[in-house]
Amino acid sequence: MTxxxxxxxxxxxxxxxxxxxxxxxxAVVMLDAPSRRNGMRVQMLVxxxxxxxxxxxxxxxxxxxxxGAGESFSVGADLDxxxxxxxxxxxxxxxxxxxxxxxxxxxxxxxxxxMCKPVIAxxxxxxxxxxxxxxxxxxxxxxSEKARFGFVFTQRGVVPEGASSWxxxxxxxxxxxxxxxxxxxxxxxxxxxxxxxxxxxxxxxQVMSVAREYAQIFVRDxxxxxxxxxxxxxxxxxxxxxxxxxxADESRTYAGRVDSDDAREGVxxxxxxxxxxxxxxxxxxxQRF
Length: 289
Known about the structure:
Blueprint: E1 10-12, E2 18-23, E3 26-31, H1 42-57, E4 63-68, H2 84-91, E5 96-97, E6 100-101, H3 104-114, E7 119-123, E8 127-128, H4 130-136, E9 140-144, E10 148-150, H5 164-172, H6 174-183, E11 186-188, H7 189-195, E12 200-202, H8 207-220, H9 224-237, H10 243-255, H11 261-271
Parallel strand pairs: 3-4, 4-7, 7-9, 8-10, 9-12
Antiparallel strand pairs: 1-2, 2-3, 5-6, 10-11
Helix pairs in contact: 1-3, 3-4, 5-6, 9-10
């Protein structure tokens, strides 16, 4: 069986506004424009999509952390004048499709939803607008106690994006999502945690260390294929209005795993009282549904 990647980081700077490195089985995608508080431009958003795709295809990556450089995660669109939003729409060549325009934060959220690897948002500072929406599409959100959040679209004369109208009610309930999306008000980490938007709130200086510790659970303790399939079960469960079809999906997937190398290793490692060493993600179509 193979083990996760070595302790030596693999770094690259092939993205213009995003940093990317892999260390000990964890890919870190960093929004890297601290001088503008990681305000989002089209190039940054395209870079994020490409980096996420790269991490998801890399067999050495067991988990992904997305964070921001400097003191903010992202304050949303980089606004420099009244024409900023319309100019960005024109510049976003990838978003113009035969079926209509697809804005980039929404494309990021869709990519996050389809990922096999678990994604942790390390919210080192404020996450406003697009920063808050893409974080909502991630699996885990660990935030600085100083961070503030806001889905401020109605206060900018636009509407929610990043598929936040889909993700946010599932995280915090329709009532709180309606409050946040319609008013566009900014709120603190305590409110975000109590509503269920955040997984953990920690001191600002501990955000990345806690995120890395969390990511190591996936490197050290879990089967990559089991995690990927569990993500699919969670996402597909929203399609059903009765628990029966969800239970059927689980049963079918479970039955397909009981004779797998992963299951044998999971049981043997438990009986032998040792850490499990799971094989890489199984790419076969039989492990998808």
